[in-house]
Batch of 4 targets.
Target 1
Amino acid sequence: MSMTLIEAAEVLEALLREETAALKARDLRAAAALQPAKTIAVEDFVKARASLDTAGPLDHRVAMLVDGLRDSAAANRAALEDALALQARVVKAIARVATRPEGNGMPGYARPARPGAGAVAFSVRA
């Protein structure tokens, strides 16, 4: 049993847990900063998995790691889905405000001369 698979799985699981914690804390900057390391960890894990000799006996630690990775990946997926749902709600709220007609909706002078959305400016810091 090569230790590289175990090490690669441990690194990947740690990164998934860290990203999940950042997503749950709504720290999107920290979660995004982990992406390069997570990509490398996934690549390392896939390489180590490809080099695994499945004909020989497997170390019991591999089964434990698979369970841990599965749990971490499921929690990470749930946190990502929550973050995407929150992002969708924010975008919908912005779109709703941005497309609201100017004025109070009453007929007469309060109505815009040209129907449609007014100018909208955004300032976002990531």
Note: Residues 5-99 form one domain.
Target 2
Amino acid sequence: MNTYKEYLKEIEERKAQGLHPKPIDGAELLSEIISQIKDENNEHRAQSLNFFIYNTIPGTTSAAGEKANFLKEIILGESVVSEITPTYAFELLSHMKGGPSIRVLLDLALGNDVAIATEAAKVLKTQVYLYEADTDRLKEAFENGNPIAKDIIESYAKAEFFTKLPEIAEEIKVVTYIAGEGDISTDLLSPGNQAHSRSDRELHGKCMISPEAQEEIKALQAQHPDKSVMLIAEKGTMGVGSSRMSGVNNVALWTGKQASPYVPFVNFAPIVGGTNGISPIFLTTVDVTGGIGLDLKNWVKKLDANGEPVRNENGDPVLEEAYSVATGTVLTINTKTKKLYNGDEELIDIAKAFTPQKMEFIKAGGSYAIVFGKKIQTFAAKTLGIDIPLVFAPSKEISIEGQGLTAVEKIFNRNAVGVTPGKVLHAGSDVRVEVNIVGSQDTTGLMTAQELESMAATVISPIVDGAYQSGCHTASVWDKKAQANIPKLMKFMNDFGLITARDPKGVYHAMTDVIHKVLNDITIDEWAIIIGGDSHTRMSKGVAFGADSGTVALALATGEASMPIPESVKVTFKGDMKGYMDFRDVVHATQAQMLHKFGGENVFQGRIIEVHIGTLTADQAFTFTDWTAEMKAKASICISEDDTLVESLEIAKGRIQIMIDKGMDNDKHVLQGLINKADKRIAEIKSGEKPALTPDANAKYYAEVVVDLDLIAEPMIADPDVNNKDVSKRYTHDTIRPLSFYGGDKKVDLGFIGSCMVHKGDMKILAQMLKNVEAQNGKVEFNAPLVVAPPTYNIVDELKAEGDWEVLQRYSGFEFDDNAPKGAARTEYENMLYLERPGCNLCMGNQEKAAKGDTVMATSTRLFQGRVVEDAEGKKGESLLSSTPVVVLSTILGRTPTIAEYKTAVEGINLTQFAPPHKQLVQ
């Protein structure tokens, strides 16, 4: 009985934190609980019954297996529990979603007891999480003349699991709660520094926004018990920055409805809104939970007498309130008229939130049920030899005669499944596509594992070319939280079929390479579709979509993803890049020039950026595609020249071979398969059989942006603008300033070179600059700490082979040691160079952080409040984002450099240069 006593001890510890008992997922504990239920005189029997019924995680957990088997015993009369009748046992099975519960239900439905089989069939008709082993059993029984199997399959063909669900209410009453002004990052809803607790939903829920906000939400719920609380980003976009399912889970936990009375802390149907709508990745996550995301448009540009926008002293459009959504405002969502009302007053059309597909997600309680439901219906119709009955809303298929295809339209058409044969689809079409590459990262990975268990998946889909589980987000500190979570995650994913950063058997050295860099290497076809558990899943080969942990799980389990084909914005370049500039400056200038051209409107938001970058290899081009997450784009596509693409694929092959040499390949030889596919693609390009992907010359774009390289005369810095009087303008990534703005005297407290935005060339720039400074000044002296975290181990190995790592070691005061990794996060820094373990480090902000109130100059991607640096009493922390040479020089000077100092410091250094392609990259 030790396991149960340990559980009771844990319950007492959680009670002290104001938490309920942790949901049970282990077979050993539940087996003890079942023994205590069977013992009528056991002192823990009543408590054990409660745990068994209400506190056991469903799906494919080992506990779910024990629960399903015990319920089967009760139904068959092999065990008698007065509190759980056979009828109640069937109800409990119906809430277990899949895996062992489906196996038990099939055993009962295909058994010899007709009465039991009939009841089991009733439950099975409501279930959708069936896999091949389950449908094969049904099909075999049907072909052998089993009438129950026939009845179930006929029900599936009619999709009664969906049609018999309650209809969506015509009116949904909401009460507003403004969560923040300006863009709301998922960091506010699920802070990165609490990543370790994401799989413990109740505990993680306590970190949403603030304790004060949580109390305010509870007060609104008490005041309006018949309404849902709608969380709002006032004057901003909801859910920018990261792809966290945990953010939506927290919103649902505080404002949604319980999905099942028998599964604690799993809620659905959250309602969120934003003045500028919902971030694309976040909106996908809202769909996963059957929620509603509204584009409120409650602040609009003020126009003058000529219909032109009125601008303030900074040149930004002045906004005026179209209608109020102040906290406590009662509004009505009408799902029939698809309008938002305040009383009888119509405020805005919200039809985009209630497309036929989204209505299905809402009715079914989430998008997964629809995805699996469609697969079950297809199986049933095929088994019965009938056409699929039209139950679900048909996918929107937009085909425009005479119009060419953008790059993303070409990729989606090639990978589409279930579309009208021979039909060419354009942007706006709803498409199911096969996924080639999938990535899971370590702070959302535990949630992905939970999602896989909940949808009863046990093995990766055979149509996925390759999948990787990273360890980069927890690379900085090997603390007790990491030691408890990461090995368990790696084992689960390795067993599931992924290539894992850490070998559960300990055969190869634990890797902490940044997930995006690894995915960029293992993507070996520019026609690929990639899904990754991070917003920075933005490859420079193929088209990659950052996704929540649930969408990653769905891609792993099914090899598919569903979404509309996005519109594209074409980005090309003209002019000459100045020799003293770095490509990172071109990236920032692209955003600045786009905003200037379109009067402050971000035409990139929610769209594909098709960047005609041509001459840069995948490593270097990744700096642009990676940053498109900060441009609020849905994804990006890099259009490359043939020779450059071949070079990129050869680099990728070399990196994959390194992984194989380290022993990272699995028994299915996934990594070797990727090399073979790369060889095939290289041969196609070289022979002219299939050149590098390009759009058609007559493709149609939402907008076109031509970046003028001649206008980029000095380094460009993304500034969080922490003191802007307009709160909504802070922490947006849209304030891009030239170096001279800072006058050479802004104090810099710490520098950071690392994250996914840097490549091997950046590490070499760092080494070259340090040698330059020593040659000019006789020594290198840091006036601010410089933290360096290379993205991958292979970069470190290559730097060692080429002599650059030795240079960095010479100037460093700390170098990571994998044999004795740090056990605690650093809280104080000296003015020296720190060579940290490859991984995310400060950019993630969940382990290492700068000192509170610091001004940080970083190559990172994140400038959100509290991410890299938190505020101090009376001083805001700020994270300025810039190129590697600017960061290096800022730490040596302890301040921002002047343009003259910068030019002197980079003389003779091989910065990342770029020249536009000589010819248009179109077909």
Note: The longest strand covers residues 171-181.
Target 3
Amino acid sequence: MKQKYFSILLAILTTFAICLGAAYQAIGSDRVYLDISTSATRKINIAVPWFETAGSSQTNNLLARDLADTLAKALKFHGIISIIPTEQYGGMQHADWKDKGADYVVLGRYKKENDSIALEMRLLDVAENKIIMGKSFSGSVNQKDRMQFKYCDSVVETLTGIPGVADTRIAFINHQDSAKEVYLTDILGRNVRQITRHKHLTVSPRFVPDSYNLTYSSYHTGNQNLYITDLRQDKTTRALSRRKGLNLAPAWFKNGSKMILTLSKRGNPDLYLLDDKGQIIEQLTDRAGINVSPTLSPDGNHLVFVSDRSGRPQLYHMDMRTRKVQRITFEGSENAEPDWSPTDNLVVYSSLRDGVYQLCVVNPLQPDTVMQITNDLSHHESPNWSPDGNQIIFAKRDGKRHQIYGIMKNGSFQRRLFTMPGSQSYPQWAR
């Protein structure tokens, strides 16, 4: 039976009663959360021993190890957690955790019957020697990753006050066999799903906020049209804008009711305000160079876009209340592909410096705050923020191939997210 990524039914049971009453008071309004906004913060040491189950040996149980490994990878993904290797304690749940340097331990149990599985996970505070958070999940075996991602996000929220991003989706373009198609994956690349099958050039996937929809641009009819598809199904997609020329890379308002789209129906690529049915409301730019790559502030009052009106591609800011425009980038020979953080007045973008595209962040309302966060010799392209505003994903290009990488917003913890055949580009994180 075909699995549907978004119709997973998880029976989230009641939180453990034993030992948790006092624990929930500890993580209430008086809890001191860890500050993860500074690079000087020490990483949290967490042990994730192999899961236990009745009547089975941990040592020989591959499922017990896989469950622990998946959860450990999801926790480590957040860049604030260091996982204590199981080799240091044999993978067993009973160890001298203080001696191993653990701040917290996740103690997991599972019960598998045919194609069903139930998981129980508890978070042990080593210093206090008490359980501070636990949850239970049940569902089909092919839903076990999703269950663990949900628990991972609860652990991160317990420790930082901000939910984690493990149970989120990343869309990207995969170039393979002369075609570029849209794919969808979890953060670890364990569950990858192909979305489009146009067998042609497809670019710029964009999630529509507060919906199950995804938009993208494709050339398969001969014109670069904008399409929208419901991710709960795999059979149909429909054109949202098919005006002659470019219909490219919309920036959606937070409620999904409007978008800003690049159209070239009059010859010059300009920015237009459209409703969610694809009807034009207003033209925002008018032939002042090429105008592309719009990105909106969370409140919808500010717009950053790319224009070559000064000769080379640079970032510009438009106040959506007054329509006043001003240039905000002056360093780097080219600056492009901006993305506005969902939580801060920060825009990440790709800047051409000494022949290499590097990632930079800037407060568009204070343009003198530019900070370069990469400096290696590979190209860093198409950056996009995580839903919590702490991380950035991007396409890293070495030679002709792109791969999806992640990095913390302060420039630390750069790593490849997953490996698959082909070349992956245009990553977009669902928010």
Note: Confidence is low (pLDDT under 50) at residues 1-29.
Target 4
Amino acid sequence: MARKGKTARRLVVGGATCMWSIGHTHHVLGGGRYEDCCETLVIRLFKASGPLRVSFTTGPGKLVPDGRYMPSGVVGTTDGRTLNLNEPGTVRALLDEALSRGWRPDDPPVEEMDGWSLFDVVAARRGAAPREQPAAAEPGNGNGGSSSTGTGL
């Protein structure tokens, strides 16, 4: 069954219920072009007023959905590591890291965190590894440095 677009999802952690949702913002340049894309994960304790906003803004080496190259809710780095913010396990890992850095879900003010400051720890926890660089062609090996896996990629 498909989810309703912007409806908050539920995550139960140690008997506490959290609600979470994902949003996207950008500046429209016109002609189908955008800049300053930002993917934001919002987590809050159920019926509490102090949400945590974890923002992933595009920048050098940082990839966020732009309508062309990255799927909605996926953030990553140019070395091939990605986090899918649509996965409850990723949300839980980001929540755990935010809590370890002092976020208090029962504190009323909105707390904002740069998602990229959490990215390395959470990506490692989730098993996101950098993409391996292709081997350089060695003279005389006969394969020109290409892979022999048969995947065609």
Note: The first strand starts at residue 9 and ends at 13.
